[in-house]
Amino acid sequence: MRIQKLDPDTKKDLLEKLLQRSPNSYGKYEERVREILDAVKNGKDQALFDYTEKFDGAHINADNILVTEDEIKEAYGTVEPELIGIIRKALKNIESYHAKQMQYSWFDSRPDGTILGQKITALARVGVYVPGGKAAYPSSVLMNIMPAKVAGVDQIIMVTPPGKDGKVSPTTLVAAKEAGADCIYKVGGAQAIAALAYGTESIPKVDKIVGPGNIYVALAKKAVYGHVSIDSIAGPSEILVLADETANARYVASDLLSQAEHDELASAILVTTSEKLAHDVSDWTDRLILQLSRGDIIRKSLDNYGYILVADTLSDAIDAANEIASEHLEIVTADPFNVMTKIRNAGAIFIGEYSSEPLGDYFAGPNHVLPTNGTARFFSPLSVDDFIKKSSIISYSKEALEKVHTDIEKFAGAEHLTAHANSIKVRFDGKE
Length: 432
Fold this sequence. Notes:
The chain is 45% helix and 16% strand. It is α/β, with parallel strands linked by helices. It has a six-stranded parallel sheet, with helices on both faces.
């Protein structure tokens, strides 16, 4: 991995290069995505079937687009019982963590008859997109469905692309069943996002779409925002390790590689105050790549977006981490909890050398759907909050309104909204 001195110029160059990976930088695909969205909006099911055959090589129709209970039962017979047990353990951790995020309606009443409050309501129907193709991601299924389930969403609809045989990966189906998906449809890509956003004969329109996907899925979610809500525009995976001379170089190298293997656009960055650690980690990455199945992808990822930055002070390293605002941030220093208090921008923070990033991906409980491309400056991980909405409650008695009605009338008058003022005034002008 390249080793550079951390200074304003290297930091600026790094930030600019990382932003090139954003889905917003791939405008050349937007016209094609818009064509697919319009085709599904107008052609509904038939457009879905045509695109699924074109892109996935699968013959899907109204009779087989919905995954059946028999298919789910078959999946359980295919997946190893040990893996099913692990999925259930992970699911329990995820459910327990998200249950602590629950919000509840509240009301505040006063003696004069004023009642103010907030009503919490779960979304009625949510669509969950799960990537398919050559890889299966049961962990993504759990992370997207469980917070919706905890929030109390009435109906959770999952879409995922089928294989050429028209079937969905068995581990994906098992995870979906365990997490509580109500319906699973065999459709992927931008066409699946269109179906969820606009509705077709087979797939009902949803209120919100969540879940990661390729560039077509990301741009499709961006385009339908407003027709429905979305979680975020997911970009390539990224990790930043903040470390000092106390860190274990082999551990750090292994953690960097764990994200670099996602794809060639993944980012893996070490910011350290130790020149020795920088060189040791670089050496370990070279050695470990030889042992890993996705070595070619990892090499391209590190060549493009892999950095080791050597900072003069820990304060400089922390400032850099906050500016980069990484999806995953590991802190491996002599006093990691103290460093954590100074971190302002990160999707998920992993503290200490035994809190490796994959722990969060699969098992610990916090959600692994996280803000990318620097959006951790203003976005949060997927949570129960994404699946609820809030309504304000206002109730005034005549006595309470009488005390303030002239104030409201004057305020409305200042904005030249006489009908607003009159709506209050008529209640106290002595006329019926």
